[in-house]
C-alpha cells in the first residue's frame, strides 16, 4: 500500500443525471440528507443494467448505517444487499428509485453513541476495465493516490469537503453491489473538478467547476 499527500485535483461535486431531478433530490434529502456534493439534472440518455459506478456513504458506527438504510427504504429505495456484518465492518447496499446504487458502511464493529445521520465521507467508486491504466490516467490529470492495492483497488486523496474517488475492477464492483456487471449506454453521471473537462478511459465525464451553475 502506498500513501502520499493530498491531491490538487479532486471531485467537488457529483451530478447524477436522472429522469426526474425533483424526485431524485427529494429522495436524497429524505434518505441521506445530502448537500451540494451530490446534484441532479434531467437526462433521458439511454442506459441499461449496471451503470459502472456506486456511491458509498462512510459513517462512524453500525447504528448510523441502520438509520440511513432505514431512511432510504422509507423513501423508496430497494435492497440489493441487506445490512450485515462483514470482514471489513458493517454495511448494506440499496438502489434509489432513479437507479443509483448506494452503499452505506462503517469499519467500526460497535456503536459508541446514539444513532445519527452524520456522513463522514462520500466515496464514488468507478468500475473500470483496467485499474492500473485508469490509475495512471488520473495521476496524469492531477489526482494523488492515497491508497493503492495493486491492480485491484485505488483510492485518491481529497479534502474532507469533497467527494473521494476510488477505482475498482468493474466485475468486482458489481459483485460488491450485488448486481450483474452487464450494462450499456450512458453512465448518467458527471464529475465536477477544478481541472476539467475531460473524459476517462471508461467514458466517465469530468466537467470544469467554473462551468457548473451555482446550486
From TrEMBL:
It comes from the Bacteria. Gene3D superfamilies: 2,3-Dihydroxybiphenyl 1,2-Dioxygenase, domain 1. This is Glyoxalase. It comes from Trebonia kvetii. The lineage of its organism: Bacteria, Bacillati, Actinomycetota, Actinomycetes, Streptosporangiales.
Amino acid at each position: 500500500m502506498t500513501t502520499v499527500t493530498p491531491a490538487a485535483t479532486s471531485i467537488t461535486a457529483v451530478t447524477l443525471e436522472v429522469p426526474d431531478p425533483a424526485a431524485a433530490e427529494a429522495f436524497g434529502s429524505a434518505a441521506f440528507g445530502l448537500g451540494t456534493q451530490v446534484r441532479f439534472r434531467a437526462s433521458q440518455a439511454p442506459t441499461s443494467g449496471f451503470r459502472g459506478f456506486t456511491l458509498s456513504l462512510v459513517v462512524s458506527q453500525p447504528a448510523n448505517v441502520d438509520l440511513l438504510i432505514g431512511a432510504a427504504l422509507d423513501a423508496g429505495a430497494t435492497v440489493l444487499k441487506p445490512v450485515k456484518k462483514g470482514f471489513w465492518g458493517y454495511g448494506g447496499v440499496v438502489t434509489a428509485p432513479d437507479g443509483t446504487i448506494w452503499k452505506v458502511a462503517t469499519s467500526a464493529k460497535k456503536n459508541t453513541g446514539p444513532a445519527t445521520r452524520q456522513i463522514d465521507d462520500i466515496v464514488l467508486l468507478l468500475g473500470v476495465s483496467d485499474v492500473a491504466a485508469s490509475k495512471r490516467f488520473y495521476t496524469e490529470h492531477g489526482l494523488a493516490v492515497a491508497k493503492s492495492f495493486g491492480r485491484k483497488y485505488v483510492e485518491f486523496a481529497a479534502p474532507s469537503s469533497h467527494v473521494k474517488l476510488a477505482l475498482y475492477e468493474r466485475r468486482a464492483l458489481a459483485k460488491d453491489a450485488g448486481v450483474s456487471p452487464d450494462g450499456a449506454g450512458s453512465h448518467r453521471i458527471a464529475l465536477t473538478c477544478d481541472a476539467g473537462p475531460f473524459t476517462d478511459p471508461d467514458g466517465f465525464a469530468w466537467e470544469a467547476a467554473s462551468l457548473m451553475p451555482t446550486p
